[in-house]
Each structure stands twice: as structure tokens, then as C-alpha cells.
Design brief:
CATH superfamily of one domain: Choline/Carnitine o-acyltransferase, domain 2
Shape: globular
Keywords: Acyltransferase, Fatty acid metabolism, Lipid metabolism, Transferase, Transport
Number of helices: 24
Pfam family, one: Carn_acyltransf
Protein name: Choline/Carnitine o-acyltransferase-domain-containing protein
GO molecular function: carnitine O-acetyltransferase activity
Strand content: 5-15%
Largest sheet: 8 strands, mixed
Structural class: alpha+beta
CATH topology of one domain: Chloramphenicol Acetyltransferase
Oligomer: single chain
CATH class of one domain: Alpha Beta
Family: Belongs to the carnitine/choline acetyltransferase family.
CATH architecture of one domain: 2-Layer Sandwich
Length: 825
């Protein structure tokens, strides 16, 4: 294989996603069976210790997964009315009910039958509509579609440096790629039920490519190189061989990254910014499509080769030369980069991104995150990737201490340092810089794109709240679902700030089904409305807590229904798309050029909400759009079905609070941009003893909203303590609960007064006006997830009875002195 003068490799064109969807459902787009490379003696123990893991297990459950069910039409319409009831006036509600009844008597049953016929030959009835909704989106993907994860710092101090952290993450990410491609990644399950693994085949080597008629997703299943961006400049080198084994050690990769940083620093940042073509990926998609045409107009040209290398890379590693000073700025850096203009030139990290691909971002101080193109994968999939990568970095460090430490993978790559170099094949492990030919039209377009991006960044603000008052442990100890509890907190905070409720979205995972994605949970219900009005009213504490309980129970029930594919949003959206397609196909058959209306409805963008975008006619086999926006049909349009012309349809598709719960201990924060001009985007992670929030908006008092949220959380904690006097600390150990029970058995023979600690003393951060002023009496019983205290008490009583009957009455210990109460948080 030869290299051109600028040292780029000629790659096979990436494979379109439509080809993937045409393949048998049990076969993801990847190479067929791959014989595992034998592992040398150094890692042989890893293979032996994992011999029970079967090769080819990743997609083993695909054929057994059920298809996403099409809900009953009347049930969907009933849920639609219910989802709107708390958001409408009585008159609006009656109008919506009338529209729904009209729909059920006319267009609804016809569209339902069409959907059933359509779905009979499809893997999923929503999948094609889903892809179209994303790929027809014309606005920039940055801040509108791409979410981010902020990883926790590496627990090994030596890796909290940019080069060492980046090299470690790359090695772990490549091990994950290897496991997916060799089908050795253990399938996802929830309580033993398998989940669809199809999205993992779409995670690496993919790119979102704009065209004149919408975007397409392409993939190179043979990709074996990564692209590194530093100061807006592009570099690449190979990291895998033909068997998907790693060909570089962590030390080798670190050396490459150090060389890349050194080379990038040779170009002044102001000069580098003038050629930072990554900014073009933030443009309007049609504009970006035209610019790609300029880059690729001469097949085989230098620019075409450079662009192809970026498109086909496994992923992009972004090395930022800055380190944000606070967590809010750090989150913003992971989501959209920073904007800093020096002498009229943009030198922020926003120029060091390529938003059409999966990106791993590492700051100068080692802080790291992930930004991902969202069309083909959901947060749950990328979370598995992030958590496995983070876990692998820890286990690899443990192995340097103890060679018998476990490994996360079924098999490991042979040690590259001990392999015969000839076994690597035709690879290039030396970093090579992509040198673009900056045509005049590209230079001008780059300047305009950067200016548009800077505007977009300035229009948004980001704030974080790291709430440490309590977390999952406390919430469950009080008998609530953690997610439902937090969702009600958003409603109470918003109502307390604005005096009204707004349409709220939360995604529910539907990966129990083949090619499942998400369903929309509509948080605002009548029970929710009753709770916030009760909470902010002059009501007794018990009544407020009871209202909260009913609201969370309703939310939990709705979540379960949605996860079973029985929500209303996706079903109605599919019916809407079918109606639109039939209208457009009818118009096309009359010889007129027809496109979708300019006021289309929400797409199921999982990063938290629906994205308002016009919808295109559906193609039967691909994911590319064939729609132009804003044009009108030449012939008169037929009447819109009553449900879709009802104002309630517009209301339910305009999300104000776009929320998503996604996380585990490997993540510090998670977030995304707002999905409407007057809305909030809220990502949150519920940890054992804290809750992390990352909120964004177009300058809608984001900090004040989070302050109100924090105040509510402390206030509800006080109410729960006041009404749950018999609840023990969620951290109570089994031994301590035994002590509590034993004390009850010996009656009132204790000596001394129990000392109640000040819970505020252990809470970090500034006090709020609702910080507890007094502690509630707690007798220590209760707590979830340990054991049934009632049964244990009964058993202990029985044991004492037997001992007394046998004359073997033990001498009871006397608990002398004051008992100090352990703080709950």
C-alpha cells in the first residue's frame, strides 16, 4: 500500500447505514467470524481465567429479541389525552378530546392498518422514521443533537496528565473496539433480560455525512486508525491490525501523542485557527454539504483523501491546550468547546472538534470526556463504552501491582512489544499530519462558520449543581424511586420559580426489543400538578409527602409502560410520518414536486427531547433524506388528520424541560443543550449520596433555576424527616441494625441520652435558606435493601425464648453511656 506525498492512505469508501439495515438482523455490520489471535504467556492467564466466556456472545441474543410492539390505537389516544391534561385549560382539553374522537373515527384506524402493514417487513416500526428525524435535521448538530459525558478523574494520580490520560483511554477504548468486533463483549442485560446490542456495531468507524438531501450515516467496518486533533490540526496513525489486535503499547501511544503536541505547538495558535477545518462540522448541514463537495470535487485529491481519513477513523481524540477553571466551564468544553477571540481570531477549543464522529476529549490537566454523534447510538450504549473504558484503566493499573489481577475482556491482544513486527501487516504507526489545501472558498467559509459557531456558543449558558445533601440511598430509604423523585424535584423547582408547569420529556430505554431505542416519558401528570400545588401551598407536611408519593408512583408506572413500548409519542409520530408520506407520494404521482411542510413536528431525539424539524418522505431502504425544507406543495394539501392539527399536538411536541438520567460512578456529569429556544436541557446522575445536575439554556436564569432546585431538595428532605421519624440512616450497617434491635429487646435499661448530630455539619457547600434548622428524632429502624427487620426481630425473640426455656439465659449486656448518633449523610 502506497502513501501520497502528504502521507495519507487510500481507504475503501465507508459502508452506508442503509446496507446495515438490509442485512439479516442477527448479523451486524462487521466482519464475519474472526479467528482469535493466540495470546502469549504474559496474558495467557487472562484467557484461561475467562475461558467460560463464549466467543460470539455479543450478538447471540439478537434473534430471540421481540419486535417493538405497535400499541393499541385507542390506548395510545387515551394516553395522549392524559399526557396533555395537566398542561391544558379545561376548554383546551375538551377540544383535544374532540379532535382525538374525530381521529379515531376517521384517519386513525386507516393509518393504524398502514402502520401494521409497513411494520410487517421491518425490524422495527419506528426505526426508519427515527433515522429520518435525525438525518433531516438541518441545523448544526453541536448544542442541538450531540450530548457529552464528563468522566471522573483517573484514580491513579500518575495518569492525571493529558498525555498519560489520553494514552490510557485510547488503549482501553481500543480494547472495547476489539471486543465488539470479535463479538466477545458480554451482552447487556437488565435483571437477566437481554437487551439489543445492535447499536454497538454502529459506534466506531462511523460518521454523519451531510448531503444536499439530508444526511447519511456511513461506516468503515475495517477502520484501524484514529485521528488526533490538537490546536485545530489533524493527525492520524494506525492502532489495530487486520485481526483487530492492538499494535501499539500504551507507552508507544503516549509517545505519539507527545510528538503530535510538540508538532502542533510549532504553529502559532492564531495561524492554526485559520486552517481549523473541524469548525465546518458545526455549520448548517446544507452549507456543510456544499463545502464537502468543494473538498471532494476532485476524486483522489489531497483534500478528498484527508477528509476520507477523518470520516473513516475509529474515533477522534481531541487534545485541548487549556484546562477550564470550574466545572461549569469544563462541561461546556465537553459539549461545545470554548470560545475565545484574541485579536479577532478564534483560539478557543471550539476549533478543535469534529462533531460528525465519536470524540474523546482530554484537557491539559487530564480531565476527560466524550462527545458523540447521536443518530445511531443512544446514551445507554455510550455509557457502557465509557464505564468499560474507565474500568479497564483501573484494572490495567491493578495488573501492574498484581499480575493475577482480573481483566474485563474475554481475551486480550498479544503484547505488541513481544510480537514479530511483520505480523502487524501493512500499517503506519508513526503519526502523520493531514495538510489540507486551503482553497480561497474554504478559507472564507471557515471564517463565516467560526463566526456562526461563536454566536451559537454565546447564546447558551451552562451551570452545574453537585448536590451533596443526599442521593439514592436516602431517597430509597424513604420509599421513593430515585428517578421519579428527581423528576418531581424539577417540576417543583420550575413551578416555584415561574408559577406554572411546562411540557417535560424524559427518555425511557426500549432496548428490550430488537433495534429498540427510546420512548418518551411525559412527566407532567395530574398527580404531578397536584403535588407541586400542594407543596407550594399552606398544607401540612404529611399531605405534601403523600402528594409526592402519588406523583412518583404515577411516574414510575408511566416509565414501566414506556419501557415496554406502550408509550404514546413514538406510535403517534409513526402514524404522522405515514400520513405525511402518503400525502407526499400522492402529490408526487400527480407530477408536482412536493416536500414536507415547514412546521413539522418533533423527532425522537433521545438526548432529552424532541427536535423540531420537518419530516421527509420515507425511503424504504435507506436513511438518507429526500426533503428540502420550507417549500410548499403545488396542489392543495388534503385536510390534516384532526389529532395532528389540534393545538395539543404542537404543545406536546414543544419540550420546555428536556431531561435525561444517565450515569454510573465513572461519570462526573452528563448533559446536552436545550431543545427549544425557551427551554432547559438537564442531564443528571443520581449517585449513592449525591446528585449531579448539568443544566443548559439560552440564558433563562439557569443558575437561579438550579438554586431553586437545591432549595427544594433541602426542604423536601426536612419534610421527609419530619414525617418519617422511624427511618434509619441508609448507611446503617447490618451490625448496627442488630445493635438497635438488641436495644429494643432489653427495654429501657440504657444509660444516657442519645445525642443528635447536626446534619448540616457534614454537608459541603454553602448553606441554603432551607437547610435544616433542627434534627428530627430517629429511632434507628428501617432502611431498604438490607434485610427484613421484622423477621429478624421475630427470630431473635424466638431464640431468647428457647434459651430461657432451657435455663440458659444469657447475661444481657448493658449499654452504658451516651449513644452518639451517626450522621445520615
Amino acid at each position: 500500500m502506497s502513501y501520497s506525498s502528504v502521507a495519507v492512505r487510500h481507504f475503501t469508501a465507508p459502508k452506508p447505514l442503509l446496507d446495515a439495515m438490509a442485512t439479516p438482523r442477527s448479523q451486524p455490520i462487521m466482519e464475519a467470524k474472526i479467528t482469535p489471535t493466540s495470546v502469549d504467556g504474559v496474558n495467557g492467564d487472562n484467557v484461561a481465567s475467562n475461558s467460560s466466556k463464549k466467543k460470539g456472545s455479543t450478538f447471540a441474543n439478537q434473534d430471540s429479541l421481540p419486535k417493538l410492539p405497535i400499541p393499541d390505537l385507542e390506548s395510545t389516544c387515551k394516553k395522549y389525552i392524559e399526557a396533555l391534561s395537566a398542561l391544558q385549560t379545561p376548554r383546551e382539553q375538551e377540544e383535544t378530546k374532540a379532535s382525538v374522537q374525530d381521529f379515531l373515527k376517521s384517519d386513525g384506524p386507516i393509518l393504524q392498518e398502514k402502520l401494521k402493514n409497513y411494520a410487517s417487513s421491518k425490524t422495527s416500526y419506528i426505526e426508519q422514521f427515527w433515522y429520518d428525524s435525525y438525518l433531516n435535521y438541518d441545523s448544526p448538530v453541536v448544542l442541538n443533537l450531540n450530548p457529552f459525558f464528563l468522566l471522573e478523574d483517573d484514580p491513579t494520580p500518575a495518569r492525571n496528565h493529558q498525555v498519560t490520560r489520553a494514552a490510557s483511554l485510547v488503549v482501553s477504548a481500543l480494547s472495547f473496539v476489539r471486543a465488539v468486533r470479535r463479538e466477545e463483549l458480554e451482552p447487556d442485560t437488565v435483571r437477566g433480560t437481554p437487551l439489543c446490542m445492535y447499536q454497538y456495531s454502529r459506534l466506531f468507524g462511523t460518521a454523519r455525512l451531510p448531503t444536499e438531501n439530508g444526511c447519511v450515516i456511513s461506516q468503515d467496518p475495517h477502520a484501524k486508525h484514529i485521528v488526533v486533533m490538537c490546536r485545530g490540526q489533524f493527525y492520524w496513525f494506525d492502532v489495530l491490525d487486520e485481526n483487530h489486535d492492538l499494535i501499539m503499547t500504551e507507552k508507544d501511544i503516549a509517545l505519539n501523542l507527545q510528538v503530535i503536541i510538540g508538532d502542533a505547538e510549532q504553529t502559532p495558535i492564531q495561524d492554526a485557527a485559520k486552517g481549523a477545518l473541524g469548525v465546518l462540522s458545526t455549520e448548517n448541514r446544507k452549507v456543510w454539504s456544499g463545502l464537502r463537495d468543494i473538498l471532494t470535487k476532485d476524486e483522489g485529491s489531497n483534500n478528498a483523501e484527508c477528509l476520507n481519513i477523518v470520516d473513516t477513523a475509529l474515533f477522534v481524540l481531541c487534545l485541548d491546550y487549556t484546562e477550564p477553571s470550574n466545572t461549569s466551564d469544563l462541561c461546556a468544553n465537553m459539549l461545545c468547546g470554548t470560545s475565545e477571540v484574541v485579536k479577532g481570531v478564534q483560539v478557543g477549543t471550539c476549533t478543535n472538534r469534529w462533531y460528525d464522529k465519536l470524540q474523546i476529549i482530554v484537557c491539559q490537566n487530564g480531565s476527560a470526556g466524550i462527545n458523540f454523534e447521536h443518530t445511531g447510538v443512544d446514551g445507554h450504549t455510550v455509557l457502557r463504552f465509557a464505564s468499560d473504558v474507565y474500568t479497564d484503566t483501573i484494572l490495567r493499573f491493578a495488573k501492574t501491582i498484581n499480575g493475577q489481577a482480573p481483566t474485563l475482556w474475554a481475551t486480550n491482544s498479544p503484547d505488541p512489544a513481544k510480537r514479530d513486527p511483520r505480523s502487524f501487516g501493512d500499517v503506519s504507526t508513526t503519526p502523520r499530519k493531514l495538510e489540507w489545501d486551503m482553497l480561497p472558498e474554504l478559507s472564507i467559509a471557515l471564517r463565516f462558520a467560526e463566526s456562526h459557531l461563536a454566536d451559537l456558543l454565546k447564546q447558551h449558558e451552562f451551570r452545574v449543581l453537585e448536590f451533596e445533601g443526599f442521593g439514592k440511598n436516602f431517597i430509597t430509604s424513604m420509599g421513593f424511586s430515585p428517578d421519579a423523585f428527581v423528576q418531581m424535584a424539577f417540576q417543583a423547582a420550575y413551578y416555584g420559580l415561574y408559577g406554572r408547569l411546562e411540557n417535560t420529556y424524559e427518555p425511557a430505554m426500549t432496548k428490550f426489543f430488537l433495534h429498540g431505542r427510546t420512548e418518551a416519558i411525559r412527566t407532567v401528570t395530574n398527580e404531578c400538578a397536584n403535588f407541586v400545588q400542594t407543596f407550594w401551598g399552606e398544607k401540612p407536611a404529611e399531605q405534601k409527602v403523600e402528594a409526592l408519593k402519588k406523583a412518583t408512583e404515577k411516574h414510575t408506572a408511566t416509565t414501566k409502560e414506556c419501557s415496554k413500548g406502550q408509550g404514546q409519542d413514538r406510535h403517534l409520530y409513526a402514524l404522522y410520518c405515514l400520513w405525511q408520506r402518503s400525502f407526499e407520494e400522492g402529490s408526487s404521482s400527480s407530477g408536482n414536486s412536493v416536500v414536507s411542510s415547514s412546521n413539522g413536528y418533533s423527532s425522537p431525539a433521545e438526548n432529552g427531547s424532541a427536535v423540531d424539524s420537518p419530516k421527509s418522505p420515507l425511503s424504504d431502504d435507506g436513511v438518507s433524506s429526500t426533503t428540502s425544507y420550507g417549500l410548499r406543495a403545488i396542489r392543495p394539501a388534503p385536510p390534516t388528520p384532526a389529532l395532528f392539527s389540534d393545538p395539543g399536538w404542537d404543545k406536546i411536541n414543544n419540550t420546555i424541560l428536556s431531561t435525561s438520567n444517565c450515569g454510573n460512578p465513572c461519570l462526573r456529569h452528563f448533559g446536552f443543550g436545550p431543545t427549544s429556544a425557551d427551554g432547559f436541557g438537564i442531564g443528571y446522575i443520581i449517585k449513592d449520596d449525591s446528585i449531579s445536575f448539568c443544566a443548559s439554556s439560552k440564558h433563562r436564569q439557569t443558575a437561579r433555576f438550579l438554586y431553586t432546585l437545591e432549595s427544594y431538595l433541602f426542604e423536601i428532605r426536612k419534610l421527609l424527616r419530619a414525617t418519617n421519624r422511624k427511618t434509619a440512616s441508609p448507611r446503617t450497617s447490618r451490625a448496627r441494625e442488630m445493635e438497635i434491635i438488641a436495644e429494643r429487646l432489653q427495654g429501657d435499661h440504657r444509660r444516657g441520652r442519645l445525642v443528635r448530630g447536626d446534619p448540616g455539619a457534614v454537608r459541603r457547600g454553602a448553606d441554603t435558606p432551607t437547610t435544616d434548622s433542627g434534627e428530627i428524632e430517629d429511632d434507628g429502624m428501617g432502611g431498604y435493601g438490607f434485610f427484613d427487620a421484622g423477621m429478624l426481630l421475630h427470630a431473635l425473640k424466638g431464640l431468647n425464648t428457647d434459651r430461657e426455656r432451657n435455663g440458659d439465659k444469657p447475661e444481657r449486656r448493658r449499654f452504658v453511656g451516651k449513644k452518639l448518633r451517626l450522621n445520615e449523610y
